[in-house]
């Protein structure tokens, strides 16, 4: 069902995106793939469909749960890995961890120690690679919403990842909604970073075009044998834009409400409150600049140049703001995908973000 609001897993529920799937298929032949697109563009759906379609041993780590945390500990990551190993690996493959220092078994499940005798991430990756060699299979680890990893305290994940990149049969997919933050975390272009200069495949997941959005809705309604007027579909796409998640949610609401206006209003309301919540998560750890970030979003809601917004912010605060500082604030909003820069103009990433700040 196209209007199922959960991430799609079944290839036949995934609309369009043949190109993106093809690129991902190519990418997982190599150590590292980045899958980037704004929130609800369909990244999780793409990787889940790929997991169904492509042979390999897949480990899926959902990091979205850390969205509202100010930081993540080593324990959090190790436990996520432990969970994915326990769900994905059959019993006989988990045995490779038997006897390794810092690993215990409860029943058939591995338990990683994160205390004093803790297991190192590189060791876990080593063992996974050993499985891959033995089985003649590839092991693919997905870090879904990998920008959250930048909050990891006390350990640098990039070293074990670089080690795996160079020596092991492990492949990584890093997905991210906050695209600039993913680059910030991986530091691929920073000469002093462990991952500097490594080759990778980048797959972008853009919103649907207007025509594709309309086609998505038509096909979704067809599945329910419901005929919706073209005029209403147009209205939905004009109001919601091309983000698959919002279109899906509109369809889902329509099936229940059987009424265009009601379904659309409900979708917009939900979208705005979710966007606000996500913005509040962004503000966590940035307490000192909260009001400034809010003002900047409000000023840019219709799109404008760097200078215009700076002047507006200064007018509001009644003080001059340092150019560098202003650029930094602005860049953080771009990195978190609340704003995008097109030519000289900064504007909200999509129409619903624009609405959320109106
Ligand atoms: P992301 O991981 O990028 O935030 P999801 O994969 O969770 O996005 O998708 C958001 C919503 O949109 C889900 O309900 C999903 O089912 C739907 N969706 C996204 N892309 C597609 C697609 N290509 N075809 C059908 N439904 C999609
Ligand atoms: Mg996702």
UniProtKB/TrEMBL annotation:
GO terms for molecular function: ATP binding. It comes from the Archaea. Residues 14-247 form the ATPase domain. InterPro entries: ATPase_dom, P-loop_NTPase, WH-like_DNA-bd_sf, WH_DNA-bd_sf, WHD_MCM_arc. Residues 288-348 form the MCM C-terminal domain. PANTHER family: ATPASE DOMAIN-CONTAINING PROTEIN, DNA-BINDING PROTEIN-RELATED. This is AAA family ATPase.
